[in-house]
Amino acid sequence: MSSPLSPEDQRTHASRGTLASVVRRLRRQRARIVPHPGPATGEQRTAGGHSGALRAAIFGVNDGLVSNLALIFGVAGAGVSSEVILVTGIAGLLAGAFSMAAGEYISMKVQREVFERLIHLEAHEIGSLPQQERDELVGIYERKGVPHELASQLADVLMADPEVALETHAREELGLDVDEGLGSPWAAAGSSFVTFSFGAFVPLAPFLVTEGTPAVVASGVVSAITLLGVGAATSFLTGRSAELSAIRMLSIGASAAAITYGVGKLLDVAVT
Q: What burial letters (b/e) apply to 148-183, b meaning 16+ CB within 10 Å?
């Protein structure tokens, strides 16, 4: 008896475990869950349904700020003129923003295409091989510890509605959440471009109004203030201390700037 699946669907079926794993990695759903240290007192802060957007905004700004701050301090340490620093900072802002946007677009586009292909295959299998798909659900629930009789009843109920069956198979078999949505690659790229550009502009701004050592000092100060704010904002995602989160973010950014500034100094001395 020939398979009701087309050759293309059969190839997808054979590799769907790998494809589903790719989608999960792209969606960052495979993070290891670790208990929060210390006591949980009072109501825990959460970012609610906007946590994904907040996370993207926070880390987009942070990426832009730290990378351009390190770049600017690196060339500043080499003793170049403020004009060169300004051009370097603008180039770093544009290069980083376009790179982030392009990477986010490709990531989201691939995720969306793979997701749609897997959902298409599941829908086709549910329509053409309902008994086999029902047995797969029974096996999944049994492996989770559900007794066979109860797993069979549950699978029968879920398979009765094709839409519910598709959603259940996508979640239980492939680890995909249909309700979460796929998102827009263009929106993701635009958001990454804007947030990275904003962060990268912070250490660059002082060089638009002054030059020399005052500009370098001002760049460090405004960057430090912004890093403290971004670090504190991460506490809305993690539930940890805003003060500690702010200091941690500042320490990372300051370390990157100090290292590149030192490298710039060494290169300046070597060239001189």
A: eeebbeebeebbeeeeebbbbbbeebbebebeeebe
User: What are the residues whose beta carbons fall under 8 Å from the beta carbon of 107, sequence distance 6 or more?
Assistant: 26, 188
Q: In angstroms, rounded to a whole number, what is the distance separating the alpha carbons of residues 29 and 96?
A: 25
**Which pLDDT does position 66 carry in this prediction?**
95
- Specify the residue for token string 């091989």: 129
- pLDDT tens, residue by residue, 88-109: 999 999 999 999 999 889 988 8
Q: Where in the chain are the domains?
A: 8-24+50-271
Asked whether the beta carbons of 148 and 183 are under 8 A apart, the reply is no
Please state the separation of Cα 178 from the chain's center in Å: 19
Is the separation of the CB atoms in 226 and 257 below 8 Å? no
* Residue 43 CB partners (closer than 8 Å, separation 6+): none
In three-state form (DSSP H/G/I as H, E/B as E, the rest C), the secondary structure along 79-119 is: CCCHHHHHHHHHHHHHHHHHHHHHHHHHHHHHHHHHHHHHH
